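Supplementary Methods S3. Input chains for the assembly prediction are listed below.
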Amino acid sequence: MKVFNPFLTALVLLIACNQNQHSVPVAGSTEETIVEKEKSDVFYHYSIWYAFVNKIFEGELTAKELKERGDIALGSYNLLDGELIMLDGVLFKATEDGKVTRVKDDDKIVYANAAFFDVEQSFEIKEVDNYKSLREKINEQLPSKNIFYAFKIHGDFKKMKCGGLNKQDKPFEDGLDVLIPNRPVFERENFSGTMVGFFCPEFIGNINVAAYHLHFVSDDETFAGHVMEFEAENLKVEMDYIYEYQFAVPRSPEYLNGNFENEFQYKKK
Amino acid sequence: MKVFNPFLTALVLLIACNQNQHSVPVAGSTEETIVEKEKSDVFYHYSIWYAFVNKIFEGELTAKELKERGDIALGSYNLLDGELIMLDGVLFKATEDGKVTRVKDDDKIVYANAAFFDVEQSFEIKEVDNYKSLREKINEQLPSKNIFYAFKIHGDFKKMKCGGLNKQDKPFEDGLDVLIPNRPVFERENFSGTMVGFFCPEFIGNINVAAYHLHFVSDDETFAGHVMEFEAENLKVEMDYIYEYQFAVPRSPEYLNGNFENEFQYKKK
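Predicted structure tokens for the full assembly:
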């Protein structure tokens, strides 16, 4: 016999009311937005590339907050103390000494791109000699150059060359236009891993890196960084189409009063 | 004597659970985001200026959907069939014949900027001779040129000159770089009304109108359009600081396959 239990009804209603909702605090503020996490298909971006290039090297976003904005990401930590890569919700840091570590929830992030990754298109590539060749093969698959894409690309790497970042101290002397061409470089051969990143249309201008931007982490979590060059086999390219883009600017005095003049782009089209 | 009523408890819990939340459908998709409407402080932008300049004159956003993204807005309707202005949640259309009408929920929008307006700073100006003079006075008040602002500016207008749009038919021949310099112009003297609009930092590039962009609607709802020039008294300038910016691109074949080459900016700094 079924008995109507009003207490149970109240509980069920409350649970139903809260399911799929997730509290997403806005960085550096007390404001709060409720996002249906699983269905969110927004390119989330913290700070802007133009500010990052021009020595805005401290942000207010925490690792915990970034995880609420996506399960894949790339970026950098405060003071350029490591390249940031998130794969399947696990956030890594690759520091200037070449070490890769998992990240604590309260670690501060200066710059990040993130998204909740859904595979909307995938294809395999038996072999590519270099990064340019991969981009050409992906370019053939893009349904439009006027939208955004997220990528997860797993493969066996004969060679991988990744860039790191040298930790900076205040007062900051050089911007990324100087630091990136002089970045630490790490190389490894014959191992497997995943490239994670994004494609932005050219109209993104100085707000982000135009065209392709990929970071990498090895399967064994001991090698990671900004993808510079590689030779690879058995690549599985997974793509997510993104039609909405959201960015949040820092609220620090350095950002608010900054005069951004230097430009830098990777130009990986 | 108080009696515990479990049915009432369930109802109260449900109401508490739903308060301040608002279902926001994403234009042109079945995805859904839940936003705490009252606390949302995001610059919402539908389509991009670059596409709009380059003849993407049909959008998928409805008037109803736009109202879920803000209570002030500016923009245009599909086929350039009128300038769009939203003031205090009321959405108006100013067509090429000079008429101003309230808008139906299913009217389609090709381009819009919107925000939920909260006054964070306000000041009064006794008299301004022209638009440039107003911008100079506001520029003195902006705490930063690196964030976004929304404005509501009510006043008594000795003169107001507003631009309209001529409705276009397919195939579209001219972009905004041709249409705006040849737009219909409407003038009126000695009446009151409100200018509504936004300031974007220079780094916004081709994504939106850089610097100031204001639309206008008269108190009597009979005169509206894009603010070109004016002379005014008793201005009350209300400003909202915005640190987050979200844009959604159209999903039409015309947008996805578009080659955007022509640039146009109002340059109202």
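Chain B touches chain A through 47 residues (CB under 8 Å). Residues 6-18 of chain B form the longest helix (13 residues).
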